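Give me the fold.
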Amino acid sequence: MRIVAVGFGIWILGFGTGDLHAQRRGGAAPNQLQQALYDMADAIGMLRNANEVDRIGSMNYWAAGTITANGQPCKVVDYKASVNWLLKGMRVDYKCDGAPQRHVEVVKDNLAWNETEPGRGVTAAPAAAGERALMLWTLPAGAIKAANDAGAATKVATENGKTVVTYPIASLKADVKLTLDKDNHIEQIASRMGGVTTVTTFAEYGDWNGADYLSDVMFPKRITQTRGNTTIADLTITKTNTYNPYVIMPIPANLPGRN
């Protein structure tokens, strides 16, 4: 059962780890899949309070590095990603070095659009909806939430001495395989959607909020993405805000496909 509550600006989302916590207190041994899901969430600091519920609802992160934008390489300037998993939305805001244009790319549910600045200058981008939504659900916390949401379709196995978890994201018609490292951090996610496989690699997990703002929520310092032999993103995280910041992406009133 999923329970959502809002108080003092904190979103609380329980996805079944409370049941596992009760099993542990009662002495019952969790099965391999329950244990893997618990360990993943615990390793990045998702589970809080005595009931060990997921309290990561939103976050911001800033980065430097390169991405592919409109099919061209882009050295990013002022790159900021804002995520809200409860609202199922994400906004990525950046410029390419040497170019004046600001790129603001948004997805919410199955709708995508571009903005000239957050909340302004809207242009529909329906072809980008699936790829942007997949990015939302293949960040570490999003992947853990999606694995739990897939229920009985989620499977766990051991390959080459490492734990792997596989599951579908039904809304995107995508299949995901994630591999854990020795610390139960997600080190790689291979996602297949529309015949295209994207491999995302994460490294150097830590709390990047800043020395005076630590939250004990772990996020990778390095994020790289490849498709075949092509690197489409190579980002180094410069800062995070994992204290559930205020992140919204209202669907524009004139956007085609809006219900």
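Residues 59-241 form a domain with the outer membrane lipoprotein receptor (LolB), chain A fold (CATH 2.50.20).
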